[in-house]
Amino acid sequence: MESTRIIAIRHGETIWNTQGRIQGHIDIGLNEKGKEQAHLVGQAFSTSDIIVDAIYSSDLQRAFSTAEPIALATELPITKDSRLRERHFGDFEGKTWIDIDEHSPEVSIKWKERDPVWRPGEGSESLYDLDARVKVVVSELANRHLGSQIVIVSHGGVMDILYRWATGQDIQAPRTWSIENAVINRLLWTPGGLSLLSWGDKEHLDSISKDDSAA
Is residue 2 annotated as a catalytic residue, yes or no? Predict the structure, then answer.
C-alpha cells in the first residue's frame, strides 16, 4: 500500500501562548522566542538529510512565519490552506481560561469534559467539526504526494487531532501527551489511516531550552 510521510509542526510561540489566551482564528504573530524557534526549525531542515516534496501551512501568520524558514532551507514554496487553521473558538477567542472559569463556569465545564458536539459561540466549531476538517484536508494533501514526504505547519488543536487519529485515541480521552511549539512530529499516512512514527522531537530547540534554564 502506498503511503506518505508527514512532518507535522505546531507554530512557534506567541505572546498569547504565554498568557494562556485563546487564539483560534485570530491572526496573532510570533513573539521573539517564537521567531527563534522558527529559525531553529529551518536549521533542522538545512543541516540534515530531510527530504520533502511540499510544504503546507495554515494561512494564519503564526503558522506561515514558522513555515518560512523551512521553505528557505528546502527551496520549496509554501502552499497556504485555511483548512489547516486552529479550531474556531467563537466567543472564547481573545479570552483566557481563567476569564472563562470565573465568568462562565457552566461553559468551562463543557470544555474541560471535552463535549464533542458543543460549540463555543456562533460560527465556531465543535470537536467533531475540527476532527472531520483535519482528517479531510490531511488525507487530501497526503494523497497528492504518495511515496513522498510533506511538511504541515499548523496549530495545537490540529496536532491534537493528528495524535488521536494516529494512536486511536477517542476524541474525548484526556490528553496525556504534549503539544509543544515548534517541535517535530512524524506520521505515516495511507489510504487506510494515520500512524505515529515519532512525537515531540525538540532536539533542534536545545539552545533555547539551555538559555531558558540559565535565565
Answer: no
pLDDT (average), residues 33-53: 95
* Model confidence pLDDT, tens digit, residues 82-136: 999 999 999 899 999 899 888 888 888 888 899 999 998 888 999 999 999 999 9
What are the distances in angstroms from CA 162 to CA 18, 53, 99? 23, 20, 28
- The residue from 13, 36, 86, 125 that is catalytic is 86
Q: What is the secondary structure of 135-193 as a DSSP string?
A: HHHHHHHHHTTTTSEEEEEE-HHHHHHHHHHHHT--TTSPP-S---TT-EEEEEEETTE
Structural domain span for residue 55: 4-214
pTM of the predicted model, to two decimals? 0.94
Q: How many domains does the chain have?
A: 1
Task: Tally Cβ neighbours within 10 Å of residue 19.
Answer: 10
CA distance to 19, 77, 92, per residue, from 102 (Å): 16, 45, 13
Count other Cβ atoms within 10 Å, centred on residue 10: 26
The answer to whether residue 88 is catalytic is no
Distance CA 86, CA 62 (A): 11
By the 8 A CB rule, do 202 and 184 touch?
yes
The predicted pLDDT at position 107 comes to 82
Beta bridge partners of 185: 8
C-alpha cell at 67: 513555515
| pLDDT reading at 181 higher than 60 | yes
Catalytic residue among 11, 25, 155, 204: 11
